[in-house]
Specification:
The chain has one domain (9-232, 254-273, 305-319): TIM Barrel (Alpha-Beta Barrel), CATH 3.20.20. It is built from twelve helices and ten strands. It has helices at 16-25, 37-49, 60-66, 68-84, 101-109, 124-139, 169-179, 210-219, 235-243, 256-264, 274-290, 297-319, and strands spanning 29-33, 54-59, 91-98, 114-117, 144-149, 154-156, 159-161, 183-186, 225-227, 267-272. A hairpin with a 2-residue loop joins strand 6 and strand 7. Mean pLDDT is 95; it is low at 155-160. The protein binds glyceraldehyde-3-phosphate (G3H), 1,3-dihydroxyacetonephosphate and zinc ion.
Length: 326
Amino acid sequence: MAETVHYTDLGLKNTKEMFAAAVGGGYAIPAYNFNNLEQLQSIITACAETRSPVVLQVSKGARNYANATMLRYMAIGAVQMAKEMGVEIPIALHLDHGDTFELCKSCIDSGFSSVMIDGSHHSYEENVALTRKVVEYAHQFDVTVEGELGVLAGIEDEVQAEHSTYTRPEEVEDFVKRTGVDSLAISIGTSHGAHKFKLKDGELPPPLRFDILEEIERRIPGFPIVLHGASSVVPEYVALINQYGGKLDGAVGISEDQLRRAAKSAVCKINIDSDGRLAMSAKVREYLSQNPGEFDPRKYLGAARDELVRLIKHKNEAVVGSAGRV
Ligand code: G3H
Ligand code: 13P
Ligand code: ZN
């Protein structure tokens, strides 16, 4: 049983102030998933160098992979590393797609500053009740809570959704009021993973449903909205993966133009996982193919880490607009 610790003792921040600044400032806070040392080093390096606030995101699977206690110390290390780089960027440690009250409680007890309770697969009333229960526990410790309305297609941890359902704007006021959540994830046409759309030859991805987003914004003005499934599935990485022995057919993501538009709206947190995975996989494949005699993980993981730093700086500067906000 891991010891109980409050996030402020780890130097972390909840998402309240960062979201308020992002909503007011017309940009979004980037939320990057991580589960290992190199990913965390890349996120901190890139966000400190671009002076960007950041949400470090951990899924249930990632927590199991990395170990809950190890994660806590990694978070302490991340905060300290940023400080030693000369910038005190706000850093939140967030549970991504929490599926039970118990998991959310365990994360809060072990130092997370923010949790998502994803009740979107339940009925509306069950979603309200579960989310409310998490909020009541989390707020005792000033931990912020993200809820979700509407279902994204793709894999959300162990839950696979074949079909997405868009968020129903007529539900958002009631949901926010009855649950007390601090932010709301919505479904407007994104999905998880590297295959977001099934397109015919020459067909372009359909635009996101900004009409739904605008209606949500009209009903809950200024309330922080979260966009999941927001990787662009960078074509250069897909090409490198395929060039060096991989097989990724039909991988396609959300265009940067669509994301820039979302970041300027009520969307104040943009979730990115797949692009980081693609960047690392592309560079590991390339490095090992070009250096067949090399077997030092620092070499191929180092190449992957450098690329991830480049990718995250680009996202902060040119996509979500969070660079220079600290
Ligand atoms: O939304 C899902 C995230 O990309 C986390 O994925 O459950 O494979 O860690 P994971
Ligand atoms: P991507 O798969 O598009 O990176 O989405 C990640 C995400 O939403 C994590 O919660
Ligand atoms: Zn997600």
